[in-house]
Specification:
It comes from Burkholderia multivorans. This protein is mainly α. It has helices at about 5-10, 10-15, 20-35, 40-50, 75-80, 85-95, 105-115, 115-130, 130-135; strands at about 55-60, 65-70. Helix content is about 65%, strand content about 5%. Strands 1-2 form a two-stranded antiparallel ribbon. It is globular and about 50 Å long.
Length: about 140
């Protein structure tokens, strides 16, 4: 994670969630999204939303998503540098393209694509704290 992303974008999250929960959330999201350690249902949804490189998706014999290889996430370098910026520049536009724009639906998608509740909670908190994060980093 970039130093400025850690100090300015994570600070409101650490205040709200506590340091342990925020750190656990980052690791959980990384494991689910970057390392591909997720459920078939979540992997299928990542493919449907266009969030992974289709060349890095393994399918079973009947053509259903079997698993996602590590590193398949679209914008993975940005995710590593700043999960918050990845959410704003990659994830939210992909959701919007699918007509997912209400807060409730967006939060629901976080839980669908991140099977570890800690990662989904981190992203939900980031999403709801966007204005404050922009004030801190701007």
């Amino acid at each position: 994670m970039r130093q400025d992303a850690f100090y300015y974008q994570m600070e409101p999250l650490i205040q709200e969630m506590g340091g342990h929960a925020a750190g656990t959330g980052v690791q959980a999201a990384y494991s689910n999204l970057m390392q591909g350690k997720t459920t078939v249902r979540a992997a299928k949804r990542l493919v449907e939303l266009g969030l992974v490189d289709k060349k890095s998706v393994e399918y079973n014999t009947i053509g259903n998503v079997k698993r996602i290889k590590p590193g398949a996430l679209i914008g993975g370098d940005l995710f590593n540098a700043s999960p918050f910026e990845w959410m704003e520049k990659v994830l939210l536009p992909k959701l919007k393209a699918k007509g997912i724009t209400s807060d409730a639906k967006i939060l629901e998608e976080f839980s669908t694509i991140m099977t570890n509740g800690n990662g989904a909670n981190l992203f939900a908190t980031m999403y709801m704290q966007r204005e404050q994060i922009h004030r801190m980093s701007g």
